[in-house]
Amino acid sequence: MAPAVKRRKLEHEEGNSGSDASSAEDIANGAFSSDDDERDANDVSMDDLEDANDDATSTDGPAEEDDDEEEENEQVIEAAPKQQRDAAKPKDGEKPKSHKHSDVQLQDGVYTAETFKSNVFKLQVDELLDQVKLKYGKKEAPAENAMRTLKSVIEQIPSREPQLLAEADKSLKLSNVTIPFPNPHPPTDARYKFQYERPASINVTGSYPLKTATRAEEGTVIDLVVTMPKVIFQDKDYLNYRYFYKRAFYLACLAAGIKKSKEHKFKLSFDRLNGNQLQPILVIQPNGSGDGDDFSSSKCRINILLAAPEGVFLDAKLLPKANCIRPKGDETETDHKTLTPTPFYNSSLRSDATITPYLKLLHSSTANCDAFKDACVLGRVWLKQRGFGSALRKGGFGNFEWAALMALLMQPNPGAGAPPLSSGYSSYQLFKATLQFLARHDLSKKAYLIQARDVTFPKSGLAPVFFDGARGLNILFKMTPWSFAQLRLEAKITVDTLGDALFDQFDSTFILRTDLKNYRYDATLELPLGALGLDPAQEDYEEKLAGTCQKVHSTVVRALSDRVTAVNLSLRNHQTWKISSSRPNDNVHDHLVINIATDPANANRTVDHGPSAEDKQEAASFRKFWGDKSELRRFRDGSILESVVWSTKDASASVLEQIVLYILAKHIDIRISEDASFTYDSFAQLISSGRLQGQSGISAFTPIMAAFTQMEKDIRELGELPLSVRHIRAADAQLRYSSVDVQQISPASIVLQFEASARWPDDLCAIQRTKIAFLLKLSELLSTSHKNYKTEVGLENPSQPSQNQAFLDITLRSGKPGVPDFAFRLRIHHDREATLLERQLKDKTLDAQSRESAAVALALHNRDFIRVLSHTQTVQNLCTRHTALSPAIRLTKRWFDSHLLSPHIAPELIELLVVRTFLQPHPWPVPSCATTGFLRTLAWISRWDWRHTPLIVNFSSTASEAPVDSGTAGSGRMKAEDIEKIQTRFEAWRRIDPAMNRVVLFAATNQDTDGNTWTDRGRPEKVVATRMTALAKAATAAIRASEATSAIDDKPGSAQVTAESFFVPQLQDFDFVIHIASKYSQARRKKRSDEPKFKNIEMQQATSQSKPAPLARLFAEDLQSIYGDAILWFWDNESMLSIAGLWNPAVTAQRTFKVKPGWNSVPIASRVGEKKEAKEKEGKSVDILTNKEAVYNEMKRLGGELVSKIEVNR
């Protein structure tokens, strides 16, 4: 069966659709660049490559412009694109394209898993590429005209004679232009002169003519590269910032010349190239006047970059280990080898000189590999969705670095074997192989060299090294240890994701944004720059900031060690500034943000073990690092180790917070402990025992699990039972670590099954009576043999003889002061019941009502005695394996409760939603705390199109398999056939029940392929499922908005949202709300139980069996029974503060008079029209309408003092 087609939206603005590429003769020697992130310093130029220009900028033809314009606003991706049926047919008058590599496209549209993951994945990739690529229509034409104008204006700027610094600065200030000198500023007594001459060349460069440009939310960025002439430089200008000073002067001259032009007006500003203060650029934006130079409609901006002429400096002078910043007055060639290397300075200069060589590399790769362009686009999308860019503060790895890395990995590397990439690869193979290279190679520890020999690197170099020997540049020079570690982690996750054999994971790879900190990290520390001892006004601020960030990162990583899996540092991005003003400094109140991803197995460890006391050197280093916190301790195994012990008594400060604040205050600045803002697992505080503090997430349930184990042992030891016990198994949320409250409120359900016996009766009613007899006998034996047990037999389902009729409540009394009692509700399972019910269901002689009753009883039997047992054991195992799963489930249930959805959604379904987040976490790692698990679950619910897509949870993605005797057919590992079976069953339900009156949500697992175990019989109804989705979307939007705000408004805590705000019910959305009196609400009882008590009172309450009945919940259930489907009821099972209702318009709307409609009604005149005349002829001229006021009075009378007030909203 064909897979369901789903339309997905990628986050792109409609204003970035394309235009036809102008021909090479229209754009002078040019190629275009469109960078998603900011600007790529190394985006390549087409200078000296006229043939390449003609090929790259060839027009698609004017006949396509109208079609392109119609497709501008299309922003959706379809799983089945039209390319499949059109690809094999050439257009009229067009020759079929020849393919150099026939292995990319196979016969009959069939693709192997190596070439493309699957046929559907190939179609999705094709549609993605079609959507994100620029259309090359008419939209960019105004921007192209603006570039031609700029080229003409720049060529007419007059030369400036060589001038000293003071004269040069003064001459430009007359034009109201400030030279954007980098820090440190040039000395006032500098002897070298500044000169402006006509550029050697002006080129438009980059990805636009190569057709690898993509749409971007912020608009298209086009780079215009101006190559400076050799005459303005001297041989020693590579030293002591002299090149960068002359570069800044040249850029200011360009700004002054363009500004001076009277015929053409543009909006000018300066910016940093990729955030590098050594490389300012000129930003050209439309003036918005609507004249000929206004290119606002293109939604583009033009960046004027400066390039150093080729060969102006010797390559050997700019190698990574060279020093180019000499002491004042020392520019000799003799002693510089002993000076500290300046790799970042050297690479910044070298990047200006390698534009044309990289153009040649990228263009040759495009010519030799058909799939190279598409692989570049896939890489761009992947990087953007993960927040990476070429800018220093975006990780230093963007579109250019991706393209250059792929191109270099296809080049032969003498002595290293075959290249990692082949020109015969498909775009998917190139993309995946590049990720595999990044995941497997730790370039921070071992440099990777391409066509390079005898090149050494500084030992103190902290940037990863991928050195291109032919062009003399480390293309990763802008990266930091933490950004490269994050890049490797993302690459590993994506490679693992693409290896999923069951799901195509297209959305996880290309559609979902993963750069949201609330989903990616567990803890955040915000440090004001002032607390780090940094003054942005100082000239050496940039250098000190980089050094401080490195020290902070290394210190935190060493202190946290295996407690964390990732530590990432981030700062607010730089902004542009006016050409008439100096470059703005960072605000001293800005924050350095440290984001931490934890390892839940170690994050809350209270003792850090150091070296042995016998290892003097290591022990001394340990004591020096930890200071007064270090102490020598003897452990149980006899070892004597240096150790650090952390306290868990202070619940407000987690172990992580204690470590980070202490170590940074000791090694960085003492003010950090006072000024820092630390956030960790901020939502966990909303549930009891939610935060993992030196313990696992299930430790709060240890008492009830111990009581269950003790009770099972005691029952098995009873020797006078007629049959031996086969097993006693848990069937309750409290016994699978997933109840919201760790304190027991209601008895925990358990199921007992005896060994098989032929003496059981073969009649359903007789079986129920036999069960009652067994329970009575068990009650007698247990209470007699063990005095600490209290037992009571109860009856249920009296009107349904086919369903279970009895249960046994067992209370295990501790008898110890301060230790609570535990209650269990035991039911007996006999597998013969299912056989008899199936026989009734197939009996054609029975009436429809009896068969329907048998079907309901069979479904309940399978759910309560088979599915729940299997589900409980699986969730138990998963909660033991994943530390954060239990608090994440409890937090998510609390969210459903707080929004009054819990009466409609089975707790097992909520557990499946959260378990899916942990077992299928892509594109993130497995959640490490309750908050990330909860927020990611809400994010998935907000995206879940439950009308067309089933929920499929693969329990076998870990080693958690169902027990052998669980009775489930699909208890093994999930296979592709299981997925197809589930999909077929889901589609069948949608065909049978298109209105979704019976099954709204479809949730299946490898243990339960039916899919409707927890959602049958309209639970939840469609309106409830819609509200669940709407609430999840609102919560996800709030998270995204808070992060977007924090990126602009850098204030403490601005990246965090208030946890409590997610759990406030929106009561105004309901038709009416019944408010429960405070003394009857469960929230009040919980609050009182949390208050400090005298010890004797606490002991009495712990041993007391008199728990107040949940009157408010019983009242809500009575209302539901009385008013049936006329009102849809909502309440919070945990607090019972209010009961909300929605009138069902299909039932309570005006209708023909009826004697017993099922609710209080009032007669009214029939509607005007033909129907009224027909009713009058039939003698039925009166209709009835719900008497809502009377119904409200009935509710208040029924509730009595339970009801404080009834609030009517509409």
TrEMBL record:
Pfam families under this entry?
Nrap, Nrap_D2, Nrap_D3, Nrap_D4, Nrap_D5, Nrap_D6
Keyword rRNA processing belongs to the record = yes
Name the UniProt key words of this record, in alphabetical order: Nucleus, Ribonucleoprotein, Ribosome biogenesis, RNA-binding, rRNA processing
Q: Which GO terms describe its molecular function?
A: RNA binding
* Domain Nrap protein: from-to ranges: 222-366, 371-512, 519-668, 683-880, 882-1047, 1067-1206
According to the UniProt entry, which residue ranges have a biased composition of type Acidic residues? 34-54, 62-75
Q: Which GO terms describe its biological process?
A: rRNA processing; tRNA export from nucleus
Q: Name one GO cellular component term.
A: CURI complex
Q: Where is the composition biased (Basic and acidic residues)?
A: 83-96
Which InterPro entries has this protein been placed in? NOL6/Upt22, Nrap_D1, Nrap_D2, Nrap_D3, Nrap_D4, Nrap_D5, Nrap_D6
Where is region (Disordered) located?
Answer: 1-106, 1084-1105
Q: What is its main location?
A: nucleus
UniProt subcellular location: Nucleus, Nucleolus
Superkingdom per UniProt: Eukaryota
**Xref: PANTHER family:** NUCLEOLAR PROTEIN 6, NUCLEOLAR RNA-ASSOCIATED PROTEIN
Q: Which family does it belong to?
A: Belongs to the NRAP family.
Q: What is this protein called?
A: U3 small nucleolar RNA-associated protein 22
Tell me the organism: Karstenula rhodostoma CBS 690.94
